[in-house]
Design a protein that fits this description.
By secondary structure, the protein is mainly alpha-helical. The chain has a single domain (about 15-180), classed as Fumarate Reductase Cytochrome B subunit (Up-down Bundle), CATH 1.20.950. It contains 4 helices and 2 strands; from the N terminus they run αααββα. Helix 1 runs antiparallel to helix 2 (about 50-80), helix 2 packs across helix 3 (about 90-120) and helix 3 runs antiparallel to helix 4. The longest helix is centred in the last third of the chain and has 36 residues, at about 140-175.
Amino acid sequence: MLVSESATRSSSVSSSWSRLAIFFHWATALAIAIGLLAIEIRGPKGSASRVFWTGIHMWAGTIVLCLSVLRVLWTLWHGTPRELPHSRVQIFLARAVHLALYLLIFVQPLLGIAMVNTSGSAVQLVGTSVQLRFFAKDPVAHQFLHDAHFLIGNAAFWLIGLHALAAIVHHMVFKDATLTRMLKVAKDD
């Protein structure tokens, strides 16, 4: 196996993620799961069930976006743990999937807001007076944004599944710390 250059950084760099980074990861994962569940079980158009679960979906998307901004700011300020020694192919694939996940957690909520706005409505966060409106009504843009939001939402199932499967494979097959360092904080942290 080839060791990446960043894996040889000073031993003062943690081998695990910080408590806050772990919180951001799992809280974002939970919000994504709730958002995906809500949109899958929302019920038929016009039903009270659909209104309720759509509200949950919008809250989940907003929480994902807020957590993602905080996560990136925290990572820029605090840094990341040293990389584990893996082959160049594994590092490339991990970085590609992580880039796609970061795009997902930013782009998908923003597409959702734009989609609702271009339908002629503001995103209303249930239980608050917060209304998000950044775009004017535009039926053509709305259809494009709806299709993009739907397509990326479906791709999210596969991407998240691939991410989780890779973590399990690293734990069970490669027997490395890829999974465990996102589950517990290192003693040196």
